[in-house]
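Lab notebook: predicted structure, single chain.

Context: the supervisor wants predicted structures on file for every construct in the current expression panel, including those that have not yet been purified. This is the next one on the list. No modifications to the sequence; it matches the entry in the shared construct table.
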Amino acid sequence: MSKHLSRLIASSKFYTKPSPRLQLQQFRQPIRFQGTVEPGKGKGPISWKSFSVFAVTGVGVLGFFYYVKNEKEMAIMKERKRQLGKAAIGGKWELVDTEGKTRKSEDFLGKWLLIYFGFTNCPDICPDELEKMAHVVDDLEKSDMKTAIQPIFITVDPQRDTKEIIGKYVREFSPKFIGLTGTIDQISRVCKAFRVYFSAGPKDQQDDYIVDHTIIMYLVDPDGEFVDYYGQNKNREQVGASIQINIAKYDKVNKKSWF
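Prediction complete. Output recorded below exactly as produced.
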């Protein structure tokens, strides 16, 4: 700008030079930036309300992904069970209990069963297995799962094992046991259904004999389907742990969806 023009502006009545005080007031004006916290208001770009909404949304998204993952796992388990099909063990049967009452497999639907086949004149194996079975049932009821298992003893020697003899025999191990017998034909059918081998040995001078038979406990689920089996090589802790795992799998597959 030329000196002549500067003098002209300075002398103009339209130009007034700001006073030092006005310049100082303008300098002291607060500079406000968008998104910063203003003094005295205590609010920023993220409030507690918006943070809460964000947190709830995040939890909802995580919950949804967990639900989808869980549903996928159950679908895989159901499909695997369908592909494998029902094991050719177990099925419908009809026998007689220690009170002379007819008991059918359908009577036990909705319950977990632990079934053992044996005979009351068995010298050592059957007593050992039934004692183990009684401990397993008690252990499961005392566990965190509080699982109720119905123990059942089925004789493979119906000619000697009457309902009265079986009743007295099973009570020696546990009052929870249900003892079952039947005709030779009924026993043959239930043994065939569970693939139980049994054969009476030769009689001695007192007409006593030993019955050779399969030494296995059978686990049956509330749908009446065979699930697992346990031989002499499994102790009470192993049997109990396996039953709990099978029950957990069953509950997971059969539990209702959230929706």
